[in-house]
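[stage:ingest] chain + small molecule (nicotinamide-adenine-dinucleotide)
[stage:ingest] validated
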Amino acid sequence: MKLVASPARLSTAAATFDAEFKARLHWSADTDAAIEQRVADILADVQQRGDAAVLEYTARFDGLNVAGMGELELTQAELKAAFEAIPAAQRDALEAAARRVRTYHEAQKKASGESWSYRDEDGTLLGQKVTPLDRVGIYVPGGKAAYPSSVLMNAIPAHVAGVGEIIMVVPTPRGEKNALVLAAAYVAGVTRAFTIGGAQAVAALAYGTQTVPKVDKITGPGNAYVASAKKRVFGTVGIDMIAGPSEILVLADGTTPADWVAMDLFSQAEHDELAQSILLCPDAAYIDAVQEAINRLLPAMPRAEIIAKSLTGRGALIHTRSMEEACEISNRIAPEHLEVSSRDPHKWEPLLKHAGAIFLGAFTSESLGDYCAGPNHVLPTSGTARFSSPLGVYDFQKRSSLIEVSEAGAQVLGKIAAELAYGEGLQAHARAAELRLHTVPDMKVKK
Ligand SMILES: NC(=O)c1ccc[n+]([C@@H]2O[C@H](COP(=O)([O-])OP(=O)(O)OC[C@H]3O[C@@H](n4cnc5c(N)ncnc54)[C@H](O)[C@@H]3O)[C@@H](O)[C@H]2O)c1
Ligand SMILES: N[C@H](CO)Cc1c[nH]c[nH+]1
Ligand SMILES: [Zn+2]
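[stage:predict] done
[stage:export] tokens:
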């Protein structure tokens, strides 16, 4: 049977555009009631029965039958052995990628992840103390593909932040362990690792089981089950964002070879049938050329079936009136990845507000960002880039305000606070401030 990838052909000039566009975009884990119900049941079961439930779901969903949780833990020796056994070229690539990701996140920490403080003229100190989280859980997807790069993208910023313990979970369908994933866990310095996935792994990390330690925060991407589970455990633990099925939006002025753009659309479509690839372009003949390239290149792709399903079910080639209009529509979509495939990307970049990551120019394929450019590839999806940011060192830190009021400062602040406290009807607040005023007898700080 011949596989066909037919993304929807839309035009912003058509009267039906808004409705068709909305229908194409509309999807999120919480609109899929079947997934939601299943995830809710799994979370409740793991919370109640712990390891026993995790073992059952791992057998059911990943085809991995074992006698006890001990068999689902990867030892440090196993991680090290995997690193030593992979071909030298893979080891070098892994280490080169890790170096670039580390350099980027160290710069990120310097720019915005350090404690700071200042003093008022009267000596009062005000500031913010930044501390790393004690223990985090990192989700590394593993259902339809293996993601050693996601190990690096999660664990390295956690390390740079100074997190004490990094607990990794990764499903290994039918028990097939991916050597590169294990090697990446070794390179990135993961503390403990379990071969579990899906909602049951998220639940194990959030609630803790007899074997899996409860964590403070869960980060990392995953499929619709993982995204929904993370949303539901938020509050019990922190989460980074909703990083669900991958998305790419290519904003093209028609100057990049059509084959390059077709392959970039494939690159995210091949992740998942639910991934979304969209092209926005003001040149109709160029859109035809990209569709022709899709037809020609698809049969040779090993993951052609997933690509065809994703492009046909969720993809779109949109003809716009202008590049300006294309930028405006891109902002409405707020994609995970946005490629500005143009001879003059800096002309359009200032118009772009909402995207997880922006890739400028024809040579910046999104896939370079997935592996080794340096910035994080764990990014907000489903339009959440309107309010969320890429995974970063800041996700593994928290902040405490620091306040040290001097004796002189207390004289000024005490009067302001007391006035406002009486206004709120909170007498104890007011008195606590007033007792420190020199005007109150016998209450001066002893020297
Ligand atoms: N946004 C990002 O930063 C980013 C990065 C990498 C990957 N991704 C996305 O992550 C996803 C990875 O998905 P995946 O499936 O390959 O791996 P995954 O690890 O996310 O999901 C596999 C797990 O899903 C669960 N599952 C599958 N079918 C189920 C069912 N019918 N009922 C209950 N549970 C079920 C199983 O427990 C299985 O272990 C893709 O959508 C990819 O696009 C996103
Ligand atoms: N594109 C994914 C984020 O949506 C990340 C990734 C890992 N490997 C390949 N791609
Ligand atoms: Zn990718």
